[in-house]
Specification:
single chain; about 230 residues; alpha/beta; Metallo-beta-lactamase, Chain A; six-stranded mixed sheet; 9 helices; about 25% strand; binds fe (ii) ion
């Protein structure tokens, strides 16, 4: 499977994934660029998809659907499916409720498209207030191999690294992460996230000093994560 990333809005990231001649747009807010790429590469836009239905992730849907024969499948419908086919390959679907009830992560090869569930350097807001569900969703993502590449719904890297440095000022990996950042193609790996992202490092004792200052219960991984989310 191939992946192209497009920027739109303040920080949003859109994706086109394709195999053979079949493509799916995910959070395709950069509709004109996506349609241009589809045409230039003689692709068939088969699906228009979203990681969740927040307003800033869906603005390209109308134009993409008007200009193609693509099928729209809503995130809540996708939650009932295991995968979609693109040519001979599978675009896997993992429901990851927490940011919203309909949040989805898409997976293929060594890639996850994580929407607003996991960003490069931080995590999303828990708008559902169902923190246990959100924690389970993040745990599910963390079961993937460390080399898994993370493609998020927004580029928040500058902000995220500033927060990470405030929480964990001695962490040398933050500078490495910043050195590897490019606005032209925003991606990290799970291994990089586990070295830097304070909101998924709930098994990492090097954050204990900071967490102890939060005066919240810290006895389990969930509690350590929940405490950290109080400063998110
Ligand atoms: Fe969102």
């Amino acid at each position: 499977m191939n992946i192209r990333q497009f920027r739109y809005g303040d920080s949003n990231l859109a994706y086109l994934v394709f195999s053979g001649s079949q493509a799916a747009a995910i959070d395709g807010g950069a509709a004109d660029e996506i349609l241009g790429f589809v045409e230039d590469n003689s692709l068939e836009l088969k699906y228009v998809l979203n990681t969740h239905e927040h307003w800033d992730h869906i603005p390209g849907n109308g134009r993409l659907l008007k200009e193609s024969e693509a099928e729209f499948i809503s995130p809540s419908k996708l939650c009932e499916m295991e995968y979609l086919s693109l040519a001979a390959e599978e675009l896997k679907i993992f429901p990851t409720p927490g940011h919203t009830d309909d949040s989805i992560v898409f997976g293929f090869d060594d890639c996850l498209i994580t929407g607003d569930t996991l960003f490069n350097g931080t995590v999303g807001n828990c708008y559902t207030k169902d923190y246990e569900n959100y924690f389970s969703s993040l745990c599910r993502i963390l079961e993937f191999p460390p080399e898994t590449r993370i493609f998020a719904g927004h580029d928040l890297v500058d902000y995220a690294l500033a927060v990470a440095a405030e929480i964990d000022p001695e962490n040398a990996s933050i500078a490495d992460y910043a050195a590897g950042y490019s606005a032209d193609f925003v991606v990290s790996t799970l291994a990089m996230e586990l070295a830097v992202n304070p909101f998924i490092r709930f098994g990492d004792s090097s954050l204990d000093n900071f967490r102890n200052g939060l005066e919240m219960p810290l006895g389990t991984p969930y509690r350590r994560w929940r405490a950290m989310m109080s400063v998110h």
